[in-house]
Every structure is written in C-alpha cells, then in structure tokens.
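Today's session is about reading a structure prediction critically. Students often jump straight to the picture, but the first step is always the sequence itself: look for stretches that repeat, for charged clusters, for runs of hydrophobic residues. Only then move on to the predicted structure, which in these notes is written as discrete structure tokens rather than atom positions. Here is the chain we will use throughout the hour.
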Amino acid sequence: MSVCPLCHSPDLVLFHQDKKREYLRCNVCQLVTVPAQYYLSQEDEKAFYDLHDNTVADEGYQRFLGRTLFPLLPLLSKDAAGLDYGCGEGAVLSQMAEKHGIKVDNYDLFYHPHSQLLDKQYDFITMTEVIEHIADAQGLMQQFEAMLKPGGTLAIMTKRVLSHEAFIDWHYKHDPTHINFYSEATFQWLAERYQWQLQIIDKDVVFLHRL
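Below is the predicted structure for this chain, in token form.
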C-alpha cells in the first residue's frame, strides 16, 4: 500500500495522470506525490543535474536565489550560522551570503556530501529548488527539526501547486527529478504539525520559523 511520504497517511487519491507518470494527492497534508516506481536511479538523477551550469558568475541565477536570500537577511544577526541544503555544484547562495557577512555551510548529496554538517545546529537553513526532489519528505522535516535552533528559520523555494486545473499544463511537473509537489495547504499542515510559524514570502518562497 502506498503512503504519503510527508505524513505517512495511506489516504491517497489519483490527482492527475499524464503519458509518463501518475500523481497522487494526500487527503491529509495535500502533498502531491509521484509513486516510487517513477523515481530515477541516483545515477540518472545526477546525470540530469550535471546538465545544469549554475555559477556565481550568472547574474540571473543570483537574482533568482536572491528572492529567497534577501528577505531572509534582515532576520539574521551577523553571527548567524546557516546551511544551504542541496546547494548544487556551484554553491552560489553561500557566496552571495558571504558578501553580506553571513557564514553558510554547503551540503549537497551529489556535489558537497559533507554529511557531518547534518549533525550540527543552525540559525537558518535554505533550500532553493530542492525540496521537490526529496523522496523521504517526512525524514527530511524531522532532520530539519533537529538541526534548527529555537527561533531558527527554514527558507524554502519551490513552485507551489495551485489547483488541479493549473497542474494539468504545469511545466514544473515534467522534470523527472521532481517527485513531491507542495501547496500552501501543505506548508500550513507542516507548520501545525511541527508548531512552526509559516510566512509566505513570494509565489514560490516560504519561511518556516521554529518557535
């Protein structure tokens, strides 16, 4: 029996189906998820990421990441310690933060696999276009709950599910590495589940503040 990767409820219904994959929606937390038989192997997943060439020299990419970083900066003290989870090969966000005097560690399963960083605690954690790739959604959130200091902030960038009608023609779902799709209702569920405070920053950016 399939269960939701975020809340582990078995109450899943078919949300959409296209020529390549099925998409199930959880009736508890509203996560839209792709069944495991459609997951890529780690080798194929990395090969897909290797096609990206996001570097600090790309000003457009810096503007993109800035939509998460710049609203976060006013919330941080100069001695705040952060982690960019899923930082990618170029680790661009940490370089941007350093220009503002903020230290950010880099972790990425494929490019910066420094697993010892996951045993530390941080004042903030950023995830830009990462959460939709993570299969074990519940395990990830439990990990962040342990890693975030009280008063810390989890800053997430991911495009959100708006409606079934919008989902049908949504380009975002065609990326084969995107397997979990979050909506505002899902983030509200997360905030209630972990007793965090949800702040909607932008159309694809949310902050979850640990109280």
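Discussion point for the tutorial: The two ends are 35 Å apart (CA to CA).
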